[in-house]
Amino acid sequence: MTRKKFLDQVYDLSTPDETRALYDDWADSYDAEVAGNGYVTPGRVAEALARHMPRQDLPVLDFGCGTGLSGAALTQVGFSMLEGADLSADMLKRANARGIYRRLWQVEPGAAIPPGHSAIVATGVIGVGAAPVEVFDTIVQALATGGLFALSYNDHALADPVFEGKLRGYTDTGKARLLFQEYGPHLPGIDLKSNVYVLEKA
User: Which fold has domain 11-201?
Assistant: First the structure.
């Protein structure tokens, strides 16, 4: 029996309901499929955040945590106070099984995030077939002043100027400072790359 492949479908999603349904279906095979394609962005984002956040005992929110691959990468570079949030209940079950999050919760489309976070990570979360660009605002609003936002945009997001335009809207107006930007591998197995960024909220 051939296992269903989800990477062929994910970039065509257009609504939160479609996204939730696909990720619920994908939960059991997600780790194997992305690992089989060399998924490296979680490690790249975690390392970038660690360079700019010397206190790794502060809480970090892993927004769009999925099965916890991003959280696992964060623990590997020393972060120990992780919370996670995701749209998919089935993905959250997988994340919970890792035993690395002190708290996990399911988010609803358009819902606010509790304020005052020192750092929020969104690895592969905002982009085509994933969270809409407005989630960028939701995350920045939830950061404390001086808080860090580590994120990635893959090639699909980079091809649509609205995504980088949102980021530049913050940095160009002084609402945030760009600490780090690097283009590199994302899913080498399907020849997909990504930009990794770290922003500091002004």
Answer: Rossmann fold (3.40.50)
